[in-house]
Amino acid sequence: MGQPEQRKPVTNQRMIVPRISCDETTFAVIEWAGVPKDEVLSRIRKAVTKWSQATDDGRIAVANNNGDFKLGDLANESSSSDLWGFVRAEGFAYFKMECYCDDQPTRWEFDDCLISDD
């Protein structure tokens, strides 16, 4: 009799999804597990589409956004247990998203040197 198969622990992954314009910087930090990185967008689209077709909450949420349902709208639906059931059904063991917006961008950028010339 062999040893029981060891399951590889699920490790959360993280990505940043940005929107950069001249008047604001907005980004979502998405943390997830159970789905390859290159499939996150397509699987979230499938989950949201199924949710919007199968539930009243989904139909209303999409209608309230004129059919233009984006990441910010997804964040606003974070309390919808129906939606997260559809997300789990697409293979996500874990999914968390936080959105950030700075509508008064600074001239400070990530790669700016932090040593002064003074």
Write the layout of secondary structure elements.
Layout: E1 13-20, E2 25-33, H1 40-54, H2 56-64, H3 71-76, H4 81-89, E3 94-102
Antiparallel strand pairs: 1-2, 2-3
Helix pairs in contact: 1-2, 1-4
What would you note in describing this structure?
The chain is an alpha+beta fold and 118 residues long. It has one domain. Helices cover 33% and strands 22% of the residues. The chain contains 4 helices and 3 strands; from the N terminus they run ββααααβ. The protein has a 3-stranded antiparallel β-sheet. A hairpin with a 4-residue loop joins strand 1 and strand 2. Helix 1 crosses helix 2 and helix 1 crosses helix 4. The longest helix is centred in the middle third of the chain and has 15 residues. The radius of gyration is 19 Å and the shape is flat. It starts with 12 loop residues before the first strand and ends in a 16-residue tail after the last strand. The mean pLDDT is 87.
